[in-house]
Amino acid sequence: MFRGAGRGTKVLEERFGDSLKNLVAVTDRHSAYFAIDFLNNQICLAHLLRNLEYLNDIDKEQTWAKDVQTLLREAIHLRNQKTYEVIPKDSWLTRLDELLKKNLDSLRKEFNELKRGIIRCRDYIFNFLENPAIPSDNNASERGIRKLKVSRKYPDASAPVPVPMPSTHYIPLLTRPGKTDNLLSMLYWRSSKLTGYIFASFVFAE
Fold first, then answer.
1. Please, what's the b/e burial string for 11-26 (b: 16 or more CB within 10 A of its CB; e: otherwise)?
2. Contact status, residue 104 vs residue 115, Cβ threshold 8 Å
3. Stated pTM of the model
4. Closest residue by Cα to residue 82 from 137, 140, 26, 129
5. Would you say 125 and 118 are in contact if contact means Cβ atoms under 8 Å apart?
6. How far is it, in rounded angstroms, from Cα 67 to Cα 74?
7. How are beta strands 173-177 and 197-205 bridged, if at all?
8. Predicted confidence (pLDDT) per residue in 137-177, tens digit
């Protein structure tokens, strides 16, 4: 654990330095992460799917958000079926581009806002297809941090007392392929605007 001023670019660069160039960042669309010289980036599709679900909730008649969701879910399903294969992303980007060309001016402003956000990060949406070591979301980090919070709320008398966890709002996941195909080195990074604390740890998954 270390203390930082927030989740901006400077915090990571000061803490991790040149090692960031060897990491793949799986994050939401927060602009700070794309100003860092990572090895590569991957947009967390779980976040993006939730953004699209919100649009479905506010306008149940439109089909644009549903079509984008279908595209993303099909890509995730294909990766799950072909766990270790390199899957070219060009055709997926072509399908996405067709959806991004659609005029959404007749819909609520939130639709064009999300479309513009997707356009800005378009190149980082399907990188998980071309590199099997990259996850499509950062849910693993959320599960890992959740265990720490549960252990704090219900501590085992025989277990070490965990470091207090502040209320946080965001959990990106940084990943780097390991030396073997079945080894993934993951860095969990968690920050809080309220306290300025950032939590980081390395874990290895077979």
1. bbeeebeeebeebbbb
2. yes
3. 0.69
4. 129
5. yes
6. 11
7. unpaired
8. 988 666 555 555 555 555 554 454 444 433 333 334 444 44
